[in-house]
Amino acid sequence: MLGVLVHHGDDAAGRRGKVGHLSEPRASFFGLTPDRVLDAVEVGGLRCTGRCLPLRAFENRVYEVELEDERRLVVKFHRPGRWSRETILDEHAFLAELAAAELPVVPPLDLGTGTTLGAIDGIFYSVFPKVRGRIMDELDPERRRLIGRTIGRMHAVGAARGAPHRPRLDVQRYVHEPLEALQAGKVMPENLLPRYRDVALRIAQELDEHNRERRAIEATLRSVGYDKQKAAKILGIGLRTLYRKVKEYGL
Question: Which of 77, 153, 229, 239 is the residue whose CA sits 20 to 30 A from 185?
Answer without folding.
Answer: 77
